Amino acid sequence: MSKKPIVSKLTTKEFISKLNVDYRAVHTRYERLFWQSYMGDHSIDEQFSKAQLARESFRSDEVRYEEVKQRLLKAKGVDAKKLEQWAWFFSKYQTPESVRGIFKQIVSLEKDIHKKMASRSEGYIDPKTKSFVKASRAQMSSMQLTHSDEKVRKACFIAQEELTKTCAAELIELISLRNQYAQALGFEDFYSYKVRTEEDMSKQELFTIFDTIFEKTKYAFTNLRAMEKDLPGLRKPWNRGYLLSGDFTKEADAYFPFEKALERWGRSFNQLGISFHGGTLQLDLLDRAGKYENGFCHWPDLVYFDGKKRVPGSANFTCNAVFGQVGSSERAYNTLFHEGGHAAHLLNTEETEACVNNEYPPASTAWDETQSMFLDTMLSSIEWKTRYALNSDGEAFPYSLFEKEMRKMRPLAPLSMNGIASVMYFERALYEEKNLTEKKLLTIAKSVYRTFTDTEVDSLRLLSIPHIYSWESSCSYHGYGLAELALFQWREYFYKKYGYIVDNKHVGKEMQAMWKYGSAKSFPECVKLATGKKLSPDAFLRNATASVATVLKTTNQRIELTNRAPRSKKPIELHTIIKMVHGKTVVATNKKSFEDMAKTYATWLANQKVTTL
Q1: Is 547 exposed, middle or buried, given 0-12, 13-18 or 19+ CB atoms closer than 10 A?
Q2: What is the per-residue pLDDT for 610?
């Protein structure tokens, strides 16, 4: 790439200011259209594609990049730091003119895939009546977990297997285009490109970590086969969830009423001392036709500084709760905490530059996910459940139910990374395949699934993972795996230091101290700063392989310490403006109070229950 002379006559401070203003403009335009499209309005998809290309044009602009580098040669102090961040940012996106046409094809194809999936008919064939029953993927997933009739569970499984092939041909084309793009930049394949861009790791370094984890935990498949003797059909994919945890899911459901989710989320974050730092939130929580089928959080308005004045940002996040369906509510709680953690992370940044205040590279997917997964893991803990999860009679989630589930499920705990790892290994295999055909695609999907589940019946489930169809999230699932390692290392650090996490304001304070960096530091730097140690799988492995006795002892100790923490009766204050929406309809806001918003939303929910399938 030839050097370009500085073309602008701006001072360095003016130049940096203009970079921020221009990038925020293309970012916000893209993100507003992203939300609109992913919430089901595809009338703007042409505008959305243009906005994505405009954003990419800015990020890959070699003229701006060269000017940043030229000015950096003479800059000092604060200006030098800012320019270094912009140089880091632009270095992630430099692409020769020859591949920009490929990127346009990728953007167009991804939009076609998203639209095709959003408009397809979803449902299953009733095994008794042989008639088609309309049901979303989210509904059918819940039914496989909780429905007592194996024939219905299998019918849902078969229907979902067919849905996975909706865009098989398009995915093959997409993989080819992505590989062409990455190879033109000098990478082996698109997976190598993504892991280097997002985590500054080689593909070999990444998979060596997860190869080791698999080798150290695969012994638990023996436990799975032993359990099958008492649970016939356990290794059939439509039975596993039901036979292992279906009863627990049904029993737990009464303690997770969705109409209480908003209030409990707000109270729990408030008790940790989490603040959204004046930012604005928009939440769309219910499943509906045409809506993107996976939870996510994006930031249309980035935090920025007007001189020395900090201007708060905004975040949109979503989940797909099927209100009234057994099991769906607890999963929606999980997503609410997960995406809420994402939102809090980047709305607390104190960095001045837009390029390190968003979730895209140089941001680390792994560190981003560490925040969200830390908070959804807190939610799933028995300490949180016994404190917050109450049924309609005000009775707390019973420890006896936790213990019963623990004694049954603990033999399989070493396999807890396999769900994440299966997606990683599946995508790696796809991008390394030299001549991918539909037959090979389906064979790889079944083979990898079989390796990581020890299933008796093959499944194409890996093709249903929405992340693999999007540029931003494809070949990034390892972020969840690395985050799993980091969050257990962080949890272990907090437990050793404080003894408990739930409702511990010291924990919230330390998390927010890390959030001030936005995405200005690498994943290894963040892990070391947060925990005092380099990233290691050790804490994860200690947790995954702990005995039932050890788990019961430690959880009782943590519950005892958590119960000593004061319970605030003060109004919930998260320092944010919140708008609860359903598509384009505004359902409630916290203009009066958080509690008023939660009550209004709960009242509205009463008319949104699905008919039990």
Answers
A1: exposed
A2: 72
Residue ranges of alpha helices (H) inside 454-537 are 478-498, 505-515, 523-531
pLDDT in tens, 434-471: 999 999 999 999 999 999 999 999 999 999 999 999 99
- How far is 605 from 60, CA to CA, in rounded Å? 45
pLDDT of residue 613: 54
Angle at 295 between CA 294 and CA 297, to 5 degrees: 135
Question: Which of 247, 261, 271 shows the shortest CA–CA distance to 383?
Answer: 271
Q: How many CB atoms lie within 10 A of CB 585?
A: 9
What HEC string does 276-292 produce? CCCCEEEEEEECCCCCC
CA dist 292 and 42 (Å) reads 11
Write the CB contacts of 52 (distance below 8 Å, at least 6 apart in sequence): 30, 107
Q: In residues, how long is the chain?
A: 613
Alpha carbon distance 475, 423 (integer Å): 9
CA–CA separation, 332 and 322 (whole Å): 8
Cα 492 from chain centroid?
A: 22
Produce one character per residue of 73-84: b if its CB has 16 or more CB atoms within 10 Å, e if not: eebeeebeebbe
Q: How far is 289 from 32, CA to CA, in rounded Å?
A: 20
- Mean residue pLDDT of the chain comes to 95
For residue 1, name the pLDDT band (cuts at 50, 70, 90).
very low
Share of the chain above pLDDT 70, in %: 98
Give the distance from CA 58 to its chain's centroid: 26
Cross-strand pairs, 316: 282, 298
What would the mean pLDDT of 136-155 be, rounded to a whole number?
Answer: 94
Distance CA 544, CA 538 (A): 10
- Is residue 77 helix, strand or coil? helix
Residue 452: which H helix or E strand, with range? helix 438-453
∠ Cα 587 591 592 (to 5°) = 105
CA–CA gap between residue 249 and residue 608 (Å, rounded):
21
DSSP string, 129-158: T--EEE--HHHHHHHHHH-S-HHHHHHHHH
- The whole-number pLDDT of residue 4 equals 53
Whole-angstrom Cα distance, residue 345 to residue 545?
A: 30
Strands 577-582 and 585-589: antiparallel
* pLDDT over threshold 90, residue 289: no
Per-residue pLDDT reduced to its tens digit, 577-601: 999 999 999 999 999 999 999 999 9
Q: Could you tell me the pLDDT band of residue 609, with boundaries at 50, 70 and 90?
A: confident
Q: Is 609 helix (H, G, I), strand (E, B) or coil?
A: coil
Phi and psi at residue 296, to the nearest 5°: -160, 165
Residue pair 23/352 in contact (Cβ under 8 Å)? The answer is no
